[in-house]
Amino acid sequence: MSNITRRTAGLAGLLLAPFWISIVVVVTAVEWDYLRSLGWSLTEVNDVNYPSATLRGDIGFVQSLSFVITGLLGATFIVGFRREFRHRILGWVATAGLGLFTVGMLLSAVPGDLPDEATTWHGNVHDFGFLCFVVSMIVGYSASGLALRGNTAWRGWRLFGWTPLLLAVIAVTNAGLPGDVGFCLFLVLGLSWYSVMGGRLLAVDRETDGPRASLPEAAAPGLL
Predict the structure, then answer these.
(1) Which has the closest alpha carbon to 83: 207, 210, 212, 209?
(2) Cα 175 to the chain's mean position, in Å?
(3) The pLDDT value given to residue 209
(4) In a domain? residue 223
(5) I want to staple 136 with a disulfide (CB 3.0 to 4.6 A). Which of 100, 151, 167, 203 is the partner?
(6) How far is CA 221 from CA 189, 197, 218, in A?
(7) What pLDDT does residue 127 have?
(8) Is residue 216 a contact partner of residue 207, using CB atoms and an 8 Å limit?
(9) 150 — alpha (psi -120 to 50), left (phi > 0) or beta?
(10) What does the pLDDT look like over 45-69, one tens digit per residue?
(11) What backbone torsions phi and psi does residue 216 show, to the nearest 5 degrees?
């Protein structure tokens, strides 16, 4: 994977969130009656772990496959994105943190436990995968923002390193939304970081108009 170009990495990141979210929506629609039979509701408080519960449905294998593919997309993005870092130690921390995303996605492909079921080994594996996902956002996103300092092509964009703060607020307050809506927002925004940064990586690739793995030289206006 060391030969992954900036463009390939950018495309992987850009597609990551739309791909995973689309699969969740499709699987949820197909398994709607099954989820409702478990007591799940998008807008009401319940004990069903959504969207994890879709893994136990009739087409749960589709959701499992989406976790695996999403993890591989994340790994592809990380390999290319880490070349943008300008601080060695912070770069390693960011790379390791983001790497946990792939680990988390792969482990999350294992079906979890349903409400009122006894705890199982595969349920623990799935839960640990989610924990890796959360840690990857906290460490990876913030460390990436710091590691990008000094790279003028990412001026402004590195402020997305503050994304974990927004996600923490949503996690604590549920964004004032009913049922699982707040948690779904948490997942969408968390995954969208990859798509936003992947899109920027593609833009940097076009701006430099040089070898895909080369480091950017020109300044960029950024977000602010």
Answers:
(1) 212
(2) 19
(3) 64
(4) no
(5) 100
(6) 23, 15, 10
(7) 96
(8) yes
(9) left
(10) 999 999 999 999 999 999 999 999 9
(11) -70, 145
Tokens of residue 113, six digits: 């436990």
Residue 13 makes CB contacts below 8 A (sequence gap 6+) with: 73, 74, 76, 77, 81, 194, 195, 197, 198, 199, 201
Tell me the residue range of the domain where 113 lies. 6-208
- Is 21 domain-assigned? yes
Please identify every stretch of the chain with a pLDDT value under 70, giving residue numbers as ranges: 1-2, 209-224
Residue 3 is predicted with a pLDDT of 83
Per the structure, the count of domains in the chain is 1
HEC secondary structure over the chain:
CCCCCHHHHHHHHHHHHHHHHHHHHHHHHHCHHHHHHCCCCCCCCCCCCCCHHHHHCCCHHHHHHHHHHHHHHHHHHHHHHHHHCCCHHHHHHHHHHHHHHHHHHHHHCCCCCCCCCCCCHHHHHHHHHHHHHHHHHHHHHHHHHHHCCCCHHHCCHHHHHHHHHHHHHHHHHHHHCCCCHHHHHHHHHHHHHHHHHHHHHHHHHHHHCCCCCCCCCCCCCCCC
pLDDT in the model for residue 73: 98
Degrees (nearest 5) of the Cα angle 72, 65, 144?
30
Instruction: Answer whether residue 34 is part of any domain.
Output: yes
How far apart CA 174 and CA 176 sit, in angstroms, is 5
| Residue 217 lies inside a defined structural domain of this protein | no
pLDDT of 116? 86
